[in-house]
Amino acid sequence: MFTGIIEERGRVVALDAQGDGSARLRVQAPLAVSDAGHGDSISIGGVCLTVVDKGDDWFAADVMGQTLAVSALGSVDVGDDVNVERAMRAGARLGGHIVQGHVDGVGELISATDQGTWRVLRFSLPADLAPLVVDKGSIAVAGVSLTVSNVSDPTEASAWFEVSLIPETLTATTLGALVIGAPVNLETDILARHVQRMLAFAPGGSAASAAATTASPAASSAAEGGAR
């Protein structure tokens, strides 16, 4: 579990492709490895990874092929900076919001507008995630806990959202160096995802309606029995 408060900007120092489509990622991150042990969880760009090896100022993690395919880690290269956060300690202050390190989708930077010392970033939003993103709600972008400052209207053809970044966020994370078209990992609010899932199974919800029209009575009874 993470909070989306980035502790340091790490740097990718090695990326070794494996024969099965996976890769071993080595990240230089002195603070993160100062108390890291084998098997610990560390968020890299919003993706929860497991420490499998470490040195004085670096750690290595294995990234599955599926993770490379569905997250922005698939476009990371040696020399790139990445946002790093260690797993939250029990009892610590929750400075951002509850972040799992499980990527829901990938967005792209559409525009960046400077407003004095702060900057407004607009990102594209996959259509299936649009219902989960609300104005003034929380979202993790590249592992950074942010507050949504604007969001597209449901009638617009392409969904998007905006975040407004203070100078500290622009310099302490990788978001300040993003270029137009850059991919970023997105993780929506876990509370919103749970509500959406529960509503889908409520009477009249999409899942309930689909089951009622496609499943036989026997199949429905078996499904209900397995769900208990």
Walk me through this protein's architecture.
The structure is a single chain. The chain has 228 residues and is of the alpha+beta class. It contains six helices and twelve strands.
Short description:
With 228 residues, this protein is α+β, with helices and mostly antiparallel strands. The chain has helices at 30-33, 65-70, 167-172, 190-200, 206-214, 217-227, and strands spanning 8-17, 23-28, 41-44, 47-54, 58-63, 81-86, 105-115, 118-124, 138-141, 144-151, 160-165, 183-188.
Question: What is the fold's blueprint, element by element?
Answer:
Layout: E1 8-17, E2 23-28, H1 30-33, E3 41-44, E4 47-54, E5 58-63, H2 65-70, E6 81-86, E7 105-115, E8 118-124, E9 138-141, E10 144-151, E11 160-165, H3 167-172, E12 183-188, H4 190-200, H5 206-214, H6 217-227
Antiparallel strand pairs: 1-2, 1-6, 2-5, 3-4, 3-6, 4-5, 7-8, 7-12, 8-11, 9-10, 9-12, 10-11
